[in-house]
Amino acid sequence: MKLNLLLFFFSTLVTLSWAQTPNLSKYNEEIKKVEKTVKYFEVEKINDQFYMLIGGGGNVGIYISDENVVMVDNKYEIIEEVLMSSLREITAKPIKYIINTHYHHDHSDGNRAFGKMGIPIISHENAKIRMQKVTTLYGGIYDFIDGFVQGQYPSEALPIITYNSKLTLSEGGEAIEMYNFGSGHTDGDTIIYFKNANIMHTGDAFVRYGYPYVDLNNGGSIKGIIEVLGSIAALADDQTVIMPGHGNLSSKQDVLDLRDSLMNLYQKTILGLENGRSYQEIADSIEETLVGDPNMPKAEITKINYIKSIELELKN
Ligand SMILES: [Zn+2]
User: Fold this and answer.
1) What CATH code is carried by the domain that includes residue 67?
2) 8 vs 193, residue with greater confidence
3) C-alpha separations of 19 from 16, 132, 137, 153, 290 in Å
4) How far is the CA of 150 from the centre of ligand 1 (A)?
């Protein structure tokens, strides 16, 4: 009896410790690749106060006030020096705040470096909750994300300011508005609107690489992202400069175009599923195929994956 009990405790312990060791092989692979390949960022100037840093992870937005820098996202910890040298080409001013658009590694992994420096980090409250856990990203849209496990962020890398639906920060004559429009790319997305400059950073709620990735495992929603794109467009006007999570500077019309494309796909998928059509038949009923970044996997495959993901979302 005693031996049985001991064995039971031992096996429970083994199971627990095994379950607690996350398989970070895909993450580690990505970090290695980033370290090897990312040696500089393309610096895109919007005006004297606003810049976008492109390459090696999500687009970083830079706002320079009279005294300080506010940075939106921070790419990867491993290339923090590359990021800092790009920033120092533009300005010598200190970083006062960092805003995370969401919790994914390619946007917020740099928290691990900047958090140690004591720079305050701001995010949506759900983004912080996700950062405190080991998460597995949804792999049903892009195959290369399948089985991608993201580790917990250490405490110094966590946001110290969070909000629920809207937060406004004043810095150097600029009103920096942060919005969460509900579940979209994840359940903790922040859209940042620099109101006076009329410049926006959308994070991955709006991207230019084709079918936007939606993290269904972590509160994301395809129906939701369509609505979020509508909210982004409603906040913008025809002059608004929009920094997407990935891709080139964009306009309100670009956001509306993506919203309309996804809406069409969503509605035709529902109709097709109701009529018992195959995935291929549904895909064929949608004339448009979103081809964005040529480096992304075949758009036709992603289109089918999107249809399957909508079906999955409808079942939940
Ligand atoms: Zn993301």
Assistant:
1) 3.60.15.10
2) 193
3) 5, 16, 17, 18, 39
4) 12
